[in-house]
Amino acid sequence: MLPKLKLAVFILCAIPAGQLAYDAYTGDLGVNPIETITRFTGSWSLIFLLTSLSVTPLRRLTGRNELIKFRRMLGLFAFFYASLHFATYIGLDLFFDFKAIGKDIVKRPYITVGFTAFVIMVPLAITSTAGMIRRLGKRWQKLHRLVYLAAIAGVIHFYWLVKADIRRPAQYGAVLAVLLGFRLVSKWRPVISAKFAFRSGSSNPGIITKDAETSK
Amino acid sequence: MLIKKPADIKSVEITPKELYLNRRQFIAGAAGLAGSAGAALAGFDLFGMPARAQAGEKLPNIKKGPYSTDEKQNSFKDITSYNNFYELGVDKGDPAQNAKYLTTRPWTVSVEGEVKKPKTFDVDEIIKLSPLEERIYRLRCVEAWSMVIPWVGFPLSALIKLVEPTNNAKYIQFVTLQDPKRMPGQKPGIFGNVLDWPYVEGLRMDEAMHPLTILSMGLYGEVLPAQNGAPLRLVVPWKYGFKSIKSIVKVRFVQTQPPTAWNKMQPQEYGFYSNVNPEVDHPRWSQATERRIGEFLRRKTLMFNGYGEQVASMYKGMDLRKYY
User: Fold this and answer.
1) How far apart are CA B53 and CA A32, in angstroms?
2) How many angstroms separate the CA atoms of B83 and B227, rounded?
3) Is B234:B300 a contact under the CB 8 Å cutoff?
4) Least CB-packed of A83, A169, B4, B324 within 10 Å?
5) What distance lies between CA A100 and its chain's CA centroid?
6) Taking all residues of chain A, what is their mean pLDDT, rounded to a whole number?
7) A54 lies in which domain range?
């Protein structure tokens, strides 16, 4: 059952890339195709980053711990779209003009922060294999907490590039705030509960302890 | 000479074909959108709206104007489906989709301020003020893309001379229509207005009188589509596109430098002059290069968008870094 489900999720995650390829093939990328590709891949990278960050809260809220099985795939798809995004910028937009690219990264805050987000995602993608998880042990979790930073940097990257209409980046920012806020609350709730002893035994202590361990 | 001929063929014979294609697409798009648009604009009488002005109608007696470039022109589709016109929506494709709301008749333009003969013109009267010319200009957007556009219009100076500015007239302020019903982008969102409506722009008197500066009411030999700023817009080809204000309802002659929309929004990013200048970057991106729509490789941006020979003298001695 799980392999089939995983395959289904994989196909779902690949649909945007497929659509982009199809639109490119049929010449349906609009008047400014490079801009279209850049926007499209950037948006999907952010969407998958946020989706991967929603796995833990969803597990907690639904009690369905098997959701964890999909987190790596979602994270890797975020990295996949970010790579396409970055490659589009390097290869299509600036056509390997590394002098201009270097200048951009140093001089343009929105590119600096976007580049940072991408750089952060590289080691996370590399260490996403089962072998790496085993080898890194406790350090793996520490390292992968960097994904919070990547997501924040990604949203700021989007926010800083828009000219006047901040609605879209604000939407991503709001979702990210909820997802990170959830973690903060669940980190502090056991502490607060213990202190005031309001809810001792009311919720599901098993899950809380487990979560407090896995996501602090 | 050899170059001129293909240009002739292009605007007279090829364009209509493109236009009809585009029109069909527009209708299909509009039909598909009708449902969702109807829901979004609850209470708005979609069926009572006339079709989008007279866009598509041929303009009569257009002569070739001076200063036209012989570079490859962007297609009618490029020019009419990729627009920055926030009054009709913030995404590039929005203005074409929302063009149907912007009815352009009746339409008056009030010319006022420091002039001896202030007057409120009917737009059809303005169109007849001076012989129509085709001006094929480069357009450079501040977002670092560019197009080549065959405008139809005449020098702004024709209108200026008619109303006889006083000696106090040092600048001209232009104002776009403010009407959220016809310009749905002016409806406030959850973060308020995207820009401070109405859109305002301004030129120094010598810039306004410059023969390159035109009032445009057409494109590819036909009435200007709404998404391009119908019924009447400014075209100032050596400045970033946002200076070329669209859908003008007011032209006011003033003594001091008037406020401009983008400058009010982000003063450190958009100056009053906003001359195309590859050496002065926008704080957030480089202006050294641009993507000509339809081309793969970026090209170098030219000083004053390539019109330096005509306009550089107006800015002699000015620090263009300071007066960006």
Assistant:
1) 27
2) 7
3) no
4) B4
5) 28
6) 90
7) 2-214
Judge residue B167's burial from the number of C-beta atoms within 10 Å of its C-beta, 0-12 exposed, 13-18 middle, 19 or more buried. exposed
Q: Do B54 and B265 touch, CB atoms closer than 8 A?
A: no
Residues of B in contact with A95 (CB under 8 A): 296-298
Do residues B237 and B28 touch, judged by C-beta distance below 8 A? no
Reference B267, options B203, B210, B324, B207; nearest CA is: B324
Q: Is residue B49 part of a domain?
A: yes
Reported ipTM exceeds the 0.85 cut? no
Cβ-defined contact of B145 to A32 (cutoff 8 Å): yes
Q: What is the pTM of this model?
A: 0.83
Residue type, B224: L
Percent of chain A with pLDDT over 70: 88
B130 inside domain? yes
Predicted confidence at residue A193, as pLDDT, reads: 67
Q: Which of A35, A161, A165 has the CB atom closest to B90's CB atom?
A: A165
Residue with tokens 């195309």: B276
**Which amino acid, residue A123?**
P
Check whether B44 has a pLDDT greater than 70. no
Helices marked H in chain A: 2-25, 33-53, 55-62, 71-87, 98-107, 109-126, 130-136, 138-144, 146-161, 167-196, 205-214
Structural domain count, chain B = 1
Q: Which of A180-189, B2-11, B39-48, B246-255 has the highest mean pLDDT?
A: B246-255
> What is the C-alpha separation between B96 and A87, in angstroms, rounded?
31
Tokens of B54: 């007279």
Distance CA B130, CA A99 (A): 49
- Cα–Cα distances (Å) from B275 to B11, B252, B253, in that order, read 29, 22, 21
Calpha distance B276→B301 (Å, rounded): 8
Question: Do B92 and A30 lie within an 8 Å CB cutoff?
Answer: yes
Residue B44 CB partners (closer than 8 Å, separation 6+): B181
Domain residues for B43?
A: 4-264
Q: Which CATH number belongs to the domain containing residue B161 in this structure?
A: 3.90.420.10
Whether residue B112 is contained in a domain is answered as yes
Query: How many domains are there within chain A?
Result: 1
Q: Is the pLDDT of residue B324 over 60?
A: yes
Query: Is B298 domain-assigned?
Result: no
Q: How confident is the model at residue A192 (pLDDT cuts 50, 70, 90)?
A: low
Place of tokens 């690219």: A101
Q: Tell me how far apart the alpha carbons of residues B235 and B48 are, in angstroms, rounded to a whole number.
A: 32
The confidence score (pLDDT) of residue B56 equals 83
Chain A residues touching residue B298 (CB < 8 angstroms):
93-95, 97
Candidates A28, A29, A31: best to mutate against B (most CBs of B within 10 A) is A31
